[in-house]
Automatic annotation (TrEMBL):
PANTHER family: NA(+)_H(+) ANTIPORTER NHAA, SODIUM ION/PROTON ANTIPORTER NHAA-RELATED
Family matches, as InterPro entries: Na/H_antiporter_dom_sf, NhaA
Record's protein name: Na(+)/H(+) antiporter NhaA
HAMAP family tied to this protein: NhaA
GO MF term list: sodium:proton antiporter activity
Topological type in the membrane: Multi-pass membrane protein
GO term, biological process aspect, one: regulation of pH
Primary site of residence: membrane
Primary role: Na(+)/H(+) antiporter that extrudes sodium in exchange for external protons.
Domain of life, source organism: Bacteria
Source organism of this protein record: Rhizobium sullae (Rhizobium hedysari)
Lineage: Bacteria, Pseudomonadati, Pseudomonadota, Alphaproteobacteria, Hyphomicrobiales
Keywords: Antiport, Cell membrane, Ion transport, Membrane, Sodium, Sodium transport, Transmembrane, Transmembrane helix, Transport
GO cellular component: plasma membrane
Length: 396
């Protein structure tokens, strides 16, 4: 049953992430503030302090890696729990609902990559950055979406979360195949063993949340050591957390379901601590050596247009094709103008795009061009998406 048409007698919905996606405007505002603060700090006299602090080592990793690889794994875990819920009982419970975000994610990766290649096909070095505009930043996209308030149906917010996760998982696969040079296959094998152990514990009826978290920590360590982005461990763990359904309610009570308990425990720290830290650590882009002439550089144009235009065309085109062909339907209560707004938000690249840019280019000058494209493309996408959602109406 869809989110917007649940019978009122079925009891309260305990999906804490759904509340995060639906009503945490304050969390979205906080995220926007820290992003602006990061950009200002990175271009102020405090820039050296800012960048040096991110590279301070705390134990085996730098502060930047603790935020991006460890803390953000909890964010992916939280979103993964919500996606699992929706696939079992909600917006993604039918094939037509599952296929739509998947098609949108594929279109949103292919078209931006093609746009980038068109601008940079004559330069083999620059062409290595083709994957930069293919990623969607979940945290920033959901942060902007939250600013639009309750006028956006929850089903559309879940659709964006599902699309963004599929998109980022695609980005992780791209990184592993095209940018990871030193994969540790022993660690990958160990991660697979842990993952199947988690699945087995679920199948055997295990309900002790602590046991899942202990194995999940081991899974994260092995995924991190494997050379694949460690945040994927959060999604894998989420898939194995038990969700107990009852006959009386569409969703189990908070005390009966390990999935609900874990969501409840993660929602506050993720929304008001982890995501803002993540935004502040990654949004600081130095514009010191950037000039207006940089706007015409092929790398800048490829990245900027790939995000702002490529994502819009790819995501919206895939959704239109799937809906018109009858393979899927729009998220319930969502209008086409709102879908356009969501397609724009998918062009917010930021973190994963910056990460891919660092892997693709060793030359700092080319990295700066890519960063400028990311900043411009993501900003245009965020503003356009917000305006579309802010002034669009729901479907009757």
């Amino acid at each position: 049953m869809s989110l917007s048409h649940r019978p009122s007698g079925q009891g309260p919905i305990h999906a804490t992430v759904r509340r995060f996606l639906g009503s945490e405007t304050s969390a979205g505002m906080l995220l926007m503030i820290v992003v602006l603060l990061a950009v200002v700090t990175a271009n102020s006299p405090l820039a050296s302090v800012y960048f040096d602090a991110l590279h301070v080592f705390i134990g085996p990793m730098s502060l930047e890696h603790w935020i991006n690889d460890a803390l953000m794994a909890l964010f992916f875990l939280l979103v993964g729990l919500e996606i699992k819920r929706e696939m079992l009982d909600g917006q993604l419970s039918s094939w037509s609902r599952r296929v739509l975000p998947g098609a949108g994610a594929v279109g949103g990766m292919v078209v931006p990559a093609l746009i980038y290649i068109v601008f940079n096909q004559g330069d083999p070095t620059a062409a290595q950055g083709w994957a930069i505009p293919t990623a969607t930043d979940i945290a920033f996209a959901l942060g902007v979406l939250s600013l639009a308030g309750p006028r956006v149906p929850v089903t559309l917010k879940v659709f964006l979360a599902a699309l963004a996760i599929i998109d980022d998982l695609g980005a992780v696969v791209i990184i592993a195949l095209f940018y990871a040079n030193d994969l540790n296959y022993w660690a990958l094998g160990g991660a697979a063993v842990i993952f199947f152990a988690l699945i087995g514990m679920n199948r055997l009826g295990g309900r002790r949340l602590a046991a899942y978290l202990v194995l999940g920590a081991a899974l994260w360590c092995l995924v991190f050591l494997s050379g694949i982005h460690a945040t994927i461990a959060g999604v894998l763990l989420a898939l194995t957390i038990p969700l107990k359904l009852t006959r009386e309610m569409t969703e189990a009570s908070h005390s009966e379901s390990p999935l609900h308990r874990l969501e409840h425990g993660l929602q506050g720290p993720v929304a008001f601590l982890i995501v803002p830290l993540f935004g502040f650590a990654n949004a600081g882009v130095s514009l010191t050596d950037v000039t207006l002439a940089s706007l015409s550089e092929p790398v800048t144009l490829g990245v900027g247009l790939g995000l702002a235009a490529g994502k819009l065309v790819g995501v919206l085109g895939a959704v239109v094709l799937m809906v018109r062909a009858g393979f899927a339907g729009l998220p319930r209560a969502a209008s086409w103008p709102q879908v356009v707004g969501i397609a724009f938000l998918c062009g917010i690249g930021f973190t994963m795009s910056l990460f891919v840019g660092q892997l693709a280019f060793e030359d700092q000058a080319i990295q700066d061009r890519a960063k400028l494209g990311i900043l411009i493309g993501s900003s245009v996408s965020g503003i356009a998406g917000y305006l579309m959602l802010r002034f669009s109406s729901r479907r009757a």
